[in-house]
Write a structure and sequence with these properties.
single chain; globular
Length: 181
């Protein structure tokens, strides 16, 4: 079994284990909780926006946020994660997050790109125009909006769970702030 397959399988359970580590080290303050919103809110928006465009395994999505970055869902996840690292006021959390993203998401992204390359002949041309993770400020040429955001796709992908998870984590941080100083 390759590391990318292992990484794909362990990323969700590892996230729950990391949440326990996170809450143990977190030392939130009202100012840092508020500042974290500058990363968490755009991350949630980006994930939600991207999920309303993507048609997993059915077509190569190149419109909406996919005209700016090939991996808007992962970019959104990174914004959310580092926003919560800011809320926690922990350098250790930020360091562990950076290591986890490199160890887990980089192999997963590469594996997904191999799959997309094998299924969609136009993937290489798309990849040449659109960066892997850090977004272009303008839409890539050749990615004209032929599709639009779909609330039905957003609901199908259950992206609202990210919002619910973020609200739960903020609630846990507020409780930690109030009761475990």
């Amino acid at each position: 079994m390759t590391w990318s397959r292992v990484a794909r399988r362990i990323r969700v359970p590892l996230g729950f284990a990391f949440a326990a580590f996170f809450l143990w080290l977190a030392r939130p303050t009202p100012v840092f909780l508020a500042a974290s919103l500058a990363l968490v809110v755009p991350g949630l928006w980006l994930r939600g926006y991207a999920s309303g465009y993507v048609k997993k395994n059915a077509e190569l999505t190149v419109t909406g946020p996919y005209a700016h970055t090939r991996n808007p869902l992962y970019l959104g996840s990174m914004l959310i994660a580092f926003g919560f690292a800011l809320a926690a006021r922990s350098v250790w959390i930020a360091v562990v997050l950076a290591v986890l993203f490199l160890a887990i998401y980089l192999p997963v992204i590469r594996s997904e790109e191999q799959y997309l390359r094998s299924v969609f002949p136009e993937f290489d041309a798309y990849a040449a125009r659109v960066p892997r993770l850090l977004p272009r400020m303008t839409s890539a040429r050749g990615t004209a909006a032929s599709a639009s955001f779909s609330g039905a796709r957003y609901r199908k992908h259950r992206e609202y769970n990210a919002l619910m998870g973020a609200l739960g984590l903020y609630a846990a941080l507020i409780l930690r702030l109030l009761f475990l100083k």
